[in-house]
Each structure stands twice: as structure tokens, then as C-alpha cells.
């Protein structure tokens, strides 16, 4: 078996993408699973492809597990840690969002890893992302 996961794009416009992620765990967990694939996001009105995102807002609720959001690269770097058994929202829009700080092999994608997961644990995460075009 595997965890029951969903990834739903709620909005994909020129400036923003809003993505909802859910997981109900069977105890398997997730390890560096791609959750935001910038190459799959809609191009802007000029036909330019999205090359990276910045974390503008995050709303989340976790039950029984913690979650790490990671910037994908040769060596992934932490984007944001989500505490276990916690519900909150964080807003980084005042300063333009959390930027990708990865180095070599940076893809612009966001990966996700769960820790401390067991059967019946869950999360719901809503990411508001600023889209960047190079």
C-alpha cells in the first residue's frame, strides 16, 4: 500500500499558483516527492515558461507527522518545516516570498518529505506561490 495523497492546483495564473496538498498515511510516508513541478505550471501571457517559484503564503494542518518542504537541487535545501500536530498560516508576501536558496542542480521545483508518520496521520497544506520567469 501507499499513503493516500492528492495534489490539486486551485489557481495557476500569470503571477500566482495556489496548490493544495493532502496526505492520509498508511505509515509509508513520503520521501523527497515532487509536489510543485514548475515546468508543469502554465506559461505567462507572453508565452514564457515558469522557471521557479517563491513561497508567498502557507496554510497547513498536520496530525501525527511533521513535513519538510524542500527546494529541489543536487542537494535539496529546506524551504519550510511544518511542525507535527499543528495548524497555522504564514504570510511572506510583504517581502516578496521565501526565495529558493538551492545551489548546484537547482530545478525550481518543491519536494516534500514526511517524518514521524504512522497509519492514520495526515496533513493538509495550501501553498500560495509567486511564479518567476527567467
Give a topology summary:
Blueprint: E1 4-12, E2 16-26, E3 33-36, E4 52-63, E5 66-71, E6 77-82, E7 86-91, E8 110-115, E9 119-132
Antiparallel strand pairs: 1-2, 2-9, 3-8, 4-7, 4-9, 5-6, 5-8
Largest sheet, described in full?
Answer: 5 strands, antiparallel
| Alpha-carbon distance between the two ends | 40 Å
**Fraction in helix:** under 10%
Number of strands: 9
Give the class from helix and strand content and strand pairing: mainly beta
Q: List the helices and strands in order.
A: EEEEEEEEE
Overall shape: globular
Q: Numbering strands along the chain, what is their spatial order in the largest sheet?
A: 1-2-9-4-7
Secondary structure tally, helices: 0
**Rg value:** 15 Å
Instruction: Provide the low-confidence segments as ranges.
Output: none
Describe the fold and architecture.
By secondary structure, the chain is mostly beta strands. Helices cover 0% and strands 55% of the residues. It has no helices and nine strands. The strands form two sheets. A five-stranded antiparallel beta sheet has the order 1-2-9-4-7, with no helix packed on it. A hairpin with a 3-residue loop joins strand 1 (4-12) and strand 2 (16-26). The termini are far apart. The model has no long low-confidence stretch (mean pLDDT 96).
Amino acid at each position: 500500500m501507499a499513503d493516500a495523497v492528492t495534489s490539486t492546483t486551485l489557481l495557476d495564473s500569470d503571477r500566482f499558483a495556489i496548490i493544495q496538498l493532502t496526505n492520509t498515511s498508511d505509515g509509508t510516508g513520503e520521501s523527497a516527492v515532487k509536489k510543485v513541478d514548475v515546468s508543469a505550471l502554465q506559461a505567462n501571457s507572453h508565452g514564457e515558461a515558469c522557471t521557479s517559484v517563491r513561497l508567498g503564503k502557507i496554510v497547513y494542518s498536520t496530525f501525527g507527522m511533521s513535513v519538510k518542504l524542500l527546494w529541489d537541487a543536487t542537494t535539496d535545501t529546506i524551504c519550510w518545516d511544518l511542525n507535527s500536530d499543528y495548524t497555522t498560516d504564514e504570510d511572506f508576501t510583504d517581502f516578496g516570498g521565501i526565495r529558493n536558496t538551492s545551489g548546484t542542480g537547482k530545478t525550481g521545483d518543491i519536494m516534500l518529505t514526511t517524518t514521524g508518520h504512522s497509519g492514520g496521520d495526515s496533513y493538509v497544506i495550501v501553498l500560495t506561490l509567486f511564479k518567476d520567469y527567467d
